[in-house]
Amino acid sequence: MGYGSGMARSKAFDVDAAVDKAMEVFWANGFGSTTPQQLVDALGIGRGSLYNAFDSKHALYERALRRYYERETVRLIEVLDGPGPARERLRAALELVVDAAREDRRGCMMANAAVEFGAADEVVNHLVRRTFERQEAAFRSTIEEGQRSGEIDPAADARALASFLLTTINGIRVLAKADPDPRRLADLAGTALRAI
């Protein structure tokens, strides 16, 4: 049964919009605490339609994680890959994370998935690792640009600094779930930037 098998079907059920809505539910509740009824209510479709479209709750969760990557991780990478001095792009990326963490206390959906599943789910673990690796690679590339331009100490270990920034942004997101004090979050970001 294809998604676009008829004009009425495509108007009645927008798969991309459904994945967006499911992402919001999973992001707020986690996989285990999200019930099929919550998904049905959020997507505005029947349970049968939910499973016909996505096969299983887990398959929908995988698509929601991929959507999160496309929406949230790509925003961070675009800042890091953008124009301007490397140090300013690093600052802008940290500010983006602080602002998002302060406004939305759900944390990082990928970090939440890592905590919920660990290495127990191969597909989820792969998606989480891929996301973190891509973020770290973007940090490393920007740091290396800064080293070439003289903004960042060329003797510093760019890989270690990138890992440090990856850990910092995830720490900020986790901390904000319990204490979204903007000064504290900004201080963490500022301290991380000064360490580079």
TrEMBL record:
<dbReference type="InterPro" id="IPR009057">
    <property type="entry name" value="Homeodomain-like_sf"/>
</dbReference>
<feature type="domain" description="HTH tetR-type">
    <location>
        <begin position="12"/>
        <end position="72"/>
    </location>
</feature>
<dbReference type="Pfam" id="PF16925">
    <property type="entry name" value="TetR_C_13"/>
</dbReference>
<protein>
    <submittedName>
        <fullName>TetR/AcrR family transcriptional regulator</fullName>
    </submittedName>
</protein>
<dbReference type="InterPro" id="IPR036271">
    <property type="entry name" value="Tet_transcr_reg_TetR-rel_C_sf"/>
</dbReference>
<dbReference type="InterPro" id="IPR001647">
    <property type="entry name" value="HTH_TetR"/>
</dbReference>
<dbReference type="Pfam" id="PF00440">
    <property type="entry name" value="TetR_N"/>
</dbReference>
<keyword id="KW-0238">DNA-binding</keyword>
<keyword id="KW-0805">Transcription regulation</keyword>
<dbReference type="InterPro" id="IPR011075">
    <property type="entry name" value="TetR_C"/>
</dbReference>
<feature type="DNA-binding region" description="H-T-H motif">
    <location>
        <begin position="35"/>
        <end position="54"/>
    </location>
</feature>
<keyword id="KW-0804">Transcription</keyword>
